[in-house]
Amino acid sequence: MRITDLEKTIGTFHMEVDDLYIEPEKIHGIVGPNGCGKTVFLKIAAGILPPDTGTVDYDGLSPRDITMMFQRPYLMHTTVYENLIYPLKIRGIRPDEEEIDRMLSRVGLKEQKRQYARSLSSGERQKLSFLRAVIFKPRMIMVDETLSNLDSESEELFAGMIGEIQKVRPVTWLIVNHQMDHICRLCDEMHYMEKGRFVKR
Ligand SMILES: Nc1ncnc2c1ncn2[C@@H]1O[C@H](COP(=O)(O)OP(=O)(O)OP(=O)(O)O)[C@@H](O)[C@H]1O
Ligand SMILES: [Mg+2]
Fold it and tell me: Is the pLDDT of residue 55 over 70?
């Protein structure tokens, strides 16, 4: 993915990205202080928010291949299971029930399969949101702080799962964090943001 001559103004906030190359099939970390524009950048990169000017070249990927895990995960008013299979449903893919049970067990949500999704704890919501992002095997996954609030055990779990995905069918990851934490150990490349711009460190 290449982003060129991008500009976006929202109120008093201004973003400018002259040229940023995101190498495919690698894990990219985006780090910067609160309010520097990480979420705005991800939304533009994911095609959710239009830039004022500039281009995002997806290198042949279509919106169907891209998914975003939001800072505040949106869960539908239904069960864990229904939330999980939603991305498959809208793409007309039949859920593989055994695989779903395996995934849920892996993150410790098997018992909660029929539970109302919005009654999950915040860590559990993040786990569900992660599974929901990877379940349809997207080519690019944008993660907005979703993994920055986890206990160390869950952090290891996600690091392991991401590592496995990269071995089998590499995905381009854009992982946002407001601080360098453990997840960033995973990153192949780091990008630093300050006040709406990418800066060298
Ligand atoms: N819809 C909006 N209307 C007005 N200002 C906005 C809007 N969306 C974002 N902003 C402003 O743009 C700036 C960048 O916001 P953004 O959410 O991208 O920050 P962030 O780097 O993700 O911060 P955090 O680490 O707190 O999540 C902020 O100053 C924010 O207030
Ligand atoms: Mg943010």
Answer: yes
